[in-house]
Amino acid sequence: MKQPLDLRLLQAFILLVETGSVSETARRLGRTQPAVSLQMRRLEETVHAKLFTTVNRKLVLTPDGELLLGYARTIMNL
């Protein structure tokens, strides 16, 4: 059974991409860092794809993450 997409996950995803920082994303959303990390895991489970990888301690979008980012921005701008 498919899971419905929680728009709050997309909001956090877009903000994380824009800030590049889990802690800054958490601060801006008024959440904890573990809560933001959990949201990203939930989003990855929902879309069945790994969205980020870590390079030199920085978050980098995977190709699937890049694809989702375009869709996420479109959805959030509706």
Description:
- It is globular, with a radius of gyration of 12 Å.
- It has a single domain, classed as Arc Repressor Mutant, subunit A, CATH 1.10.10.
- The mean pLDDT is 96.
- It contains 4 helices and 2 strands, in the order H-H-H-E-E-H.
- The protein is mainly alpha-helical.
- Strands 1-2 form a two-stranded antiparallel sheet.
- The longest helix is centred in the middle third of the chain and has 15 residues, at 33-47.
- 64% of the residues lie in helices and 10% in strands.
Determine the CATH superfamily.
Winged helix-like DNA-binding domain superfamily/Winged helix DNA-binding domain
The side-by-side strand order for the widest beta sheet comes to: 1-2
Quickly name the level 1 CATH class: Mainly Alpha
Alpha-carbon Rg, integer: 12 Å
List the helices and strands in order: HHHEEH
Q: Helical stretch count?
A: 4
